[in-house]
Amino acid sequence: MADRTSRVSVKRKEKKAENKTNDEKEKEKTKCGKKQEKVAKKPEMTSEPCAMDEDKRNGEATGAAAAQVKKNDGNGEFEPIELPPFEIVTGEQMSPFYFKFQFRNVEYSSGRNKTLLCYRVDTPGGSTEPLKGYLEDEHATAHAEEAFFQQVLPDSNPSQEYDVTWYVTSSPCVACAAKVANILRQRKKLRLCVFCSRLFESEEPAIVEGLKALANAGCKLRMMKPSDFEHVWETYVEKEDQSFTPWEDCKENYDYYMEKLADILK
Questions:
Q1: pLDDT above 90 for 183
Q2: How many domains does the chain have?
Q3: Residues 39 and 100 placed together within one structural domain of the fold
Q4: Catalytic residue, candidates 37, 54, 145, 252
Q5: What sign results for the dihedral spanned by CA atoms 178, 149, 192, 202?
Q6: Are the beta carbons of 257 and 229 closer than 8 angstroms?
Q7: Which residues, in sequence order, are CB contacts of 44 under 8 Å at separation 6+?
Q8: What residue stretches are annotated with the CMP/dCMP-type deaminase domain (predicted)?
């Protein structure tokens, strides 16, 4: 009798324990479901402020419309949306690190996705102080070459003569070469000499034709040699007490690019 009573008691305890276990499982499922729901909702909550921050940053600038990708929750597809443009940055001097990275005349310019343009504008006779500074672009509507003629030297005085010198991180793209060539044909009293650190996509036929058209319009195209890099360092870099030391393959890369440019323009 005692054994039967104890067995019944044990079964009740087991049943109670089983019920308790099932209850705990249900609670865990409910918890997991809520947790998953929170995780699923988190991107929706955080993406909006991020987009607002991005809009705020871009809204303060001028330059080119960048594309942002937005997910359509209905069909899971991604569609581009237009953001306010980035600005063309202008200044008088750049940091030493910036110069050494952006102007290095490597053959493969990985990570160098912008153009830096250092300029000097002289008027014949030296009646005024030369105008000097630099421009840079990144995802901008107007590339640095075009921005120069919009912001630095607009056609406000057609009768004035100008001698313009550029030191650029890479040669112009097809569109910029065409625009600059057109400006030179229109502004007969403007003389332009462009020193390039690297050649941009010089194997492309359209680029080759663009550089030829630029030269035919009167632009003098040159590659930057070690002394040109030193000149940019001394004139456009916030170097403090640092001196310029050419990188190991500076002269070798200059020779390589000079031969390529000569082949293009011959």
A1: yes
A2: 2
A3: no
A4: 145
A5: negative
A6: no
A7: none
A8: 94-221
Residues 6+ apart with CB under 8 A from 67: 80, 81, 82, 83
Q: In which domain, by residue range, is 23 found?
A: 2-57
Are residues 93 and 44 located together in one domain of the fold?
Answer: no
**Is 145 an active-site residue?**
yes
Q: pLDDT value at position 89?
A: 59
Output the six-digit token pair for 106: 């490597």
Which of the four pLDDT bands, split at 50, 70 and 90, describes residue 8? very low
Residue 82 in any domain: the answer is no
Residue 41 located in a structural domain: yes
Residue 45 lies in a domain: yes
pLDDT surpasses 80 at 124 = yes
What's the mean per-residue pLDDT of the chain? 75
Better-scored residue on pLDDT, 198 or 51: 198
